[in-house]
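I am going through a labmate's work and have reached the protein record below. What it holds is a sequence and that sequence's fold in token form. Please read both lines and tell me whether the tokens look consistent with the sequence. Do not assume that whoever made the record got everything right. Thanks in advance; the entry in question is below.
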Amino acid sequence: MRTRNLAVVFAGICGYAERLGAQSWEQSQRMLRVHEALVDPVFRAFGGRRIKQIGGTLLFVFDSPTDAVLCAAALLERVARYDAEVPEAERLDIRAGIHLGEVRLEKGDVFGEPVNIAARIEALAGPGEALFGEAVWLSMNRAEVRAEDRGERRLKGVPEAVRIFRLVESLRLLPDAGPLPDPAKLEESSEVLRHLREAYRAACRSLEEAWPYVPDRARVFVGAGLAAMVAVAAAFFALARLGALP
């Protein structure tokens, strides 16, 4: 098990649990597909690494706290444009919470107090808001964004109060993450393919973490194993597109 100092970002749908109770299964799955299609391109553009999906929330990590905050600004801007074009019932109302600190890396996942604090901060945010902890504000390039001090807050499970900042705007031109998704054209992934994709992502994260410690002689075999995994994933994807998977 290793540790690294990372910026942890939770990007979630406001009121996700309540919305599930008012939606059919098809509607909730479409909402999650739209969420993913809106979020993933932005995080890739800023070098974020996707860790996992927890219900209506996606967890990413960044090496740079500045990139994490700028990514949140770009995400909120992108989602606001999407929400302005769809009926009120289909709006996503994304929010984000960010914190910085030393996390434990294990089996492609991240653990530790910074993760818990980022989750608590995300829960404080309202629709279209990005909040982040003081550790982020002190470590980032503060000339890149404008933020307001929201004061200290007591967070559940955190022994000390955390000073919270609210992102007001980016002071830098943000990259274009591509066209907005069309819900009608987002294909529903099979359960098998979805789990395979998540397993593949976890394996890639684990390999990325372990690669510097892998002996040179072993790297050929590790690379061959990863290539085989890619081939299997491609085969499953092809079968899913042909409708051969449940």
